[in-house]
Design brief:
With 248 residues, the chain is an alpha/beta fold. It has a single domain, classed as 4-Layer Sandwich (Purple Acid Phosphatase, chain A, domain 2). It contains 7 helices and 10 strands. It has a 5-stranded mixed beta sheet with strand order 3-2-1-9-10. It has a 5-stranded mixed beta sheet with strand order 4-5-6-8-7, with no helix packed on it. Strand 4 and strand 5 form a beta hairpin. The radius of gyration is 17 Å and the shape is globular. It starts with a strand and ends in a 5-residue tail after the last helix. The site of manganese (II) ion has 6 residues, from loops.
């Protein structure tokens, strides 16, 4: 029996999308859920999404939204303050102490996971970024990590760009993006996540797979909740949920 690990990212306060993904995960024999950050912001349910992630995810790393919303150095504009008020000081303190990188062995590959980049939460890498930039993602992280490993990775998974993809790079290296649960921007307005399947903790070569899932969820509920709580940039958010395209 192979181990299955689900990887979710960029929920962005969209509770109906998260609930649909968790329901899908629950019927697939997954033993562990890892969240790659940006649980909060944008949508109407930052607090609820954070609480569900704390219960359901075995590991959580920080995204750029967790970072700038919880950082006391970020100016308290009405936009920032809206999400700070939703979350409250206790949850902001929890968010602040989250690690930025995690990793594990699976089927002979060292897999490293983070939100955007292992060296900075704000250095965005796309599928079409220069090869040099994509290869730098495999290097030993500069950001705080849950791992003790100072090894270059064999496989990298991340979030941040709201657009899933998979690439095979030189020397057997695999690079993938898990897409976004709650704010998909690849023109498919459905929740996205990934399941890795293989032998967890095994350092010897063995079978593995990566599956990309798309899950239908109640988009109208996300939209009506966004109108009810009057989120900032409401119109752009509603358009993004409807179209699956980045609208701001
Ligand atoms: Mn994001």
């Amino acid at each position: 029996m192979l181990d299955k690990i689900a990887i979710i990212s960029d929920i962005h306060g969209n509770l109906p999308a998260l609930e649909a993904v968790l329901k899908d995960i629950d019927r697939r024999g997954v033993s562990q859920i890892i969240c790659l950050g940006d649980m909060i912001g944008k949508g109407p349910h930052s607090k609820e999404v954070l609480e569900v992630c704390q219960i359901r995810c075995q590991r959580i790393v920080k995204g750029n939204w967790e970072d700038f919303i919880s950082d006391p150095k970020t100016e308290a504009t009405p936009f920032i303050q809206f999400y700070r008020n939703q979350l409250g000081e206790e949850r902001l303190a929890y968010i602040r102490q989250l690690p930025s990188v995690t990793g594990f062995w699976m089927s002979g590959k060292y897999i490293r996971l983070f939100h955007a980049n292992p060296h900075s939460l704000y250095d965005r890498v796309y599928a079409t970024s220069p090869l040099e930039k994509r290869l730098a993602l495999f290097e030993v992280p500069k950001l705080p990590s849950t791992e003790s490993s100072s090894k270059a990775a064999d496989m990298i998974g991340y979030g941040d760009i709201h657009e899933g993809y998979l690439q095979h790079l030189e020397q057997g290296r695999v690079l993938f993006n898990v897409g976004s649960v709650g704010n998909s921007c690849d023109s498919i307005p459905m929740a996205a996540y990934v399941i890795l399947e293989g032998h967890l903790h095994r350092r010897e070569e063995a079978d593995f797979s990566i599956q990309f899932y798309r899950v239908k969820y109640d988009r109208m509920k996300s939209i009506s909740d966004a109108m009810k709580v009057e989120i900032p940039d409401q119109e752009a958010y509603i358009n993004e949920i409807k179209t699956g395209l980045y609208c701001r």
